[in-house]
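Table 4 source record.
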Amino acid sequence: MAVERTNRDVRTLITQIAAGEIMLPEIQRGYVWKASQVARLIESLYRGYPAGSLLFWKTGQTAETREAAIGLVQALPSVMPLYLLDGQQRLTSLFRVLTDHPEAQVVFNIETEAFQNQSAATRRNKKWIKVYDVAGADSDVFAIHAELKGAGLAIADPEIGRRLSALQKITQRDFHMEVLHDFEYEEVADIFVRVNSGGRALKTTDLALATLSARTPGFLGQLEAESARWAERGYGALDVNFLIKALTLSLSTTGKRLASVAKLTAASKETVDAGWEQVHRGLARVVPLLAEKLLIPSTALVPSLAALHPLILFYGRLPDGAEISAEVENGLLYWFLAATARNRYGGASDTALTQDIRALDAEDPVAALLSNLGIREGGVSVTASDLAGRNHQSPYLMFCYLAAAHAGATDWWDGGPISGSVDRSGKPQYSLVHPATKLRNYSAGFTSAEINELANIVFVSEQTAKNIIGSRSPAAYMPAVGASDRLAHAIPDDPACLEPQGYRDFLTARRALLAERITTLFDQLRPGFLTKEAREAETRTAGESLVLAGYSGAGRSVLAAVAEAEGQTWTGWIDPADFEAALDAAATGLASDVPVGDETAPLRIDDEGSVTFGLGPFVIQGSLDQWRTAVKDAFEGSQPLAECPEPSDEPWPSEPVEFLLSDAGVDLTASS
């Protein structure tokens, strides 16, 4: 065994990738870099900054590989390939930029020397040049230089030439390479884990995959095939990471804490195979139940995928063809809905999963699972106040969709079921019944939170939103919608509610209709030992609320967080640019400290992609998408900076408590 050290320039490496002389071993994770990271890499090369080293493996044995995300099929190599162990994100990004990949359109401002991804604005501005046009294989730098002379630049002609030359020379930049010769696959996997645990730490599931792939070549392919199978049915979130989590849970035993990834990687091949059979069998029973009985068309609607794990494990433990009673099946689905309504896995999900997987071994698993939720004699009901103040980020979005789906709601444009309007990302399309533009122009001064309430959302296609709703009030377009369709979508009958001046009455009436529909859905699945008479409405902690609002003025923007807890109000000011940068870092697995006034607040991301941010009395938890959407929504109805509440002078005096981002904007005092 030996380690060879050498250097190769970017152009040579790109050529080798195309020729299949550099390939990705199966242990590699997928390509995950965002456009902003790609632009930063190109800028580093342009400025001559260090771009890191590359680690390869060369072997005479055949290794399982995975497809590189380069946008084309690699050629069959004429020599033994090098397997890339460290540097995939950088080399894939460079290949995409230098071969004009549609998702890697990095542009360069010749005047400011800034880099970013192409946009409509940069296309219109002659100062922005596509990196591919300068550094690509067929570039004509002289023609570009001549065109720039007439662009009215604030830099001299020689400087234009120097900058174009520096950009073109990024393909000549050398990378230091280390090549491992004749190491065994398991040793290479161990090195891969060690290397990738250094800089941008891999998730524990990635590390498990590396070890499992080394021990059982082709295992990752099985996982990817299973994930693709469910993605075709709209359940794309059942990805490889989800399956690894499910496989890990399948190793759990009664009376002990959840099996860790370490236990998974240490398990014998026979144990892993048996666990995988359980997961495969469980998914084959659970997904059809969700799709056909609950009418959930996509995992994009499910607020927490963790709630699926106890169901998968329950069914996976059953032998092939085993039947269970309708009472048990309904009870399990009832628990799934109740766990979602009560944000069972919104906090420390592993603690909750430990309790719920233990419950599967009880004599009556349904009763034990519901007992973990605090539901023993009564049941779950949803009230109008439960829906007040909630928006599309709330777990109740799923319930509002199900209320319409189970009522047979159809799209107002093509008359098809609302499940037919699921978009490419798997999310059901929806529109506002009362359009935002109409409400904002009304003198009553409706807030963004009011306008974007769940009670103002209707699940219809983009065609309906454009061609029927548009910017008209429902009083104008609703007469064209059939009475049965209005009823199925829980649209109030009162004509006054359909005018802007009756908007708040519309919200009140529709919350009541939706809550009744949702409760009816629960009641259809309710186990016999739960009675309506004993049922009590869900209780919540009083006096806790969080509102995020955007303020702008005088060239400055502020994201204001106003929190209430323990009878006190706390306000923090956040620069949205700082916060977006922290979210970008979180997307790559890095933690940040975000300035909040004169202090800093920790922003962290865990292995499951949940982002926590400490603000005043709360540690707020939400997904990356939820955080990005929350910031976007806050500035959608941006208010004058002069109206922004003053930040608190002192830090919060007591220990912060958990708060779900999905509840932001909800004043819980009103519904307690």
